[in-house]
Amino acid sequence: VTVVALCHRLRDAARLARAVEPLPVRFVVIISNNTRRSGAVFLAAQVLDLVSLGRGLMWALRTLFAGRVRLSLRPLHDPANLGWIRRRQADVGLHATGVIYRRPTIDSFRLGILNAHIGLLPAYRGRSVMEWSLLNGDPTGITTFFIDEGIDTGRSVVLREEVDVSGFSAVAAAKAFLFSQDADMYAKALQRLLAEDFEPLEQNIAEGRRWYAMSGLLTDAVSELLRARQGRQEGSDGN
Amino acid sequence: VESDLRRRVLKKALSARLAEASRSLSPQSRPLHAAAADDTEEALRVLMVRLLPRVREGVASTEELHSFLSLLASLADAARSGDLRFLDAWNSAYEALLDGQSAVELAGFRRTYVDLLEHHLGGLDG
C-alpha cells in the first residue's frame, strides 16, 4: 500500500511519518504551496521547519535525499503534482494541507484521501465542532474518513473515536490537542484498512448537521464550561 | 449537573450580551422584517460562509451588507428555535458589525437581536 502525505509544511510531514512509517506501507510525501504566498516565503517556511525538527531532522534529510519527498511551489491540484502522485500508484492520501480537494485530486488515489476531522460524524460536520459538541453536552472526538468534494460529507468512515478534552481549560488548547492527534488517527485508520476483514462504516449525512464557526460569545462560554468542569474534577479528585 | 452547568454558562453569556446590546438601543427602533427563509439551511450557509467573512473584514459592498441583513432577518424565526446555530449567526453578526466599519443602519438589527436574546433567556429561566 502506498500512502502519500499531502502537506503544506515539512514539520507536518515529519509528524505524520513518525506515526505511519512503522506500518507495512510505502510512505511518500508531497509538500505543496497551497496558499497565495510567494515561493520564497513557502521555501523559507520549509527551511525553518528543517532547522527546528530536532529528532526529525535525520528523517527529513534521509527521505529528501531518497526522493520520497516532492517539494512543489505550485498548488497540490497542479497537473504536475497529480502526475507525480499517479506515477506512484498511490492508494491513500493523508490530508494535512488545509485545502478542499477537487475531484481530479481525490481520483488520483485508488482508495481516496483520509481526513482526521475533529468531530464525531455524522452529527458534527463543519466548523467549531468541538465547541458545539461541548456546548450541546455531546462527546468530543475524531472521525477519520475518506473525503469527497463536500464539507465532511464523505460516506466511507474508517475510524470514529471519542477523545476526552475535559483536562483542558481553554478552547484553543483543547482544539490544538485534538488536531495534534491526526497522525495517530491516520496510523490507526491505516491499520484498519490493512486488515483483511475491514468494512467501512457508512456515514448517513441526513443524521447530522453542518455547523459553522462559533461566535466569540459562545466560544468564551465554552471556555468557561471547560474551566468549570476542570474545577469540579479537581475538587472531586481532592476529596 | 452537567446540563445545569451548561444552562448557567449559556445564560450568563447571553445576559452579558443582552446588557451590552441594549445599552445604545433606541426605544423607537423597530425590528428588522423579512419573510422567513424557505430553506433555512441554505440561508444559514450563504450567510456564514459567503457574507459574514466579508462583513467581518469590512470589505462587503452595500449590496452585500443589504443581503446580509435580509438573510439574517429571514432567519429570525429559526433563531428563536432550540437550534443554537441560528441564534449564533446573530451573535456573530453582532460581533462583525460591531467590529467592522459598516455604515449601515443597525437599529433594526439591534432591536431584533435584543428580542432574540430576551426570548432565549426567557427559555433558560423557565
Mean pLDDT of chain B: 90
Please give the count of helices of chain B: 6
How far do the termini of chain A sit from each other? Answer: 52 Å
Rg over C-alpha atoms of chain A, rounded to the nearest angstrom: 19 Å
Write a brief structural summary:
The complex is a heterodimer of chains A (239) and B (126). Chain A has 239 residues and is an alpha/beta fold. Chain A is 42% helix and 21% strand.
Describe the secondary-structure layout.
The complex is a heterodimer of chains A (239) and B (126).
Chain A lengths: L1 E6 L2 H11 L5 E7 L6 H13 L5 H9 L3 E4 L6 H9 L4 E5 L6 H4 L5 E6 L6 E3 L2 H8 L4 E6 L9 E7 L8 H10 L1 H13 L6 E2 L6 E3 L4 H23 L1
Parallel strand pairs in A: 1-2, 1-4, 2-3, 4-5, 6-10
Antiparallel strand pairs in A: 5-7, 7-8, 8-9
Chain B lengths: L1 H22 L16 H17 L5 H13 L1 H4 L4 H16 L7 H19 L1
Helix pairs in contact in B: 1-6, 2-3, 2-5, 5-6
Please explain how this structure is put together.
The complex is a heterodimer of chains A (239) and B (126). Chain A is α/β, with parallel strands linked by helices and 239 residues long. Chain A is 42% helix and 21% strand. In chain A, strands 3-2-1-4-5-7-8-9 form an 8-stranded mixed sheet, sandwiched between helices. The longest helix of chain A has 23 residues, at 216-238. The N and C termini of chain A lie far apart (52 Å). Chain B has 126 residues and is mainly alpha-helical. In chain B, helix 2 runs antiparallel to helix 3 and helix 5 packs antiparallel against helix 6 (107-125). The model of chain B has no long low-confidence stretch (mean pLDDT 90). The A-B interface holds A 132, 135-137, 209-218, 220-221, 224-225, 228-229, 232 and B 2-3, 5-6, 9-10, 12-14, 17, 41, 44-45, 48-49, 84-85, 88-89, 91-92, 94-95.
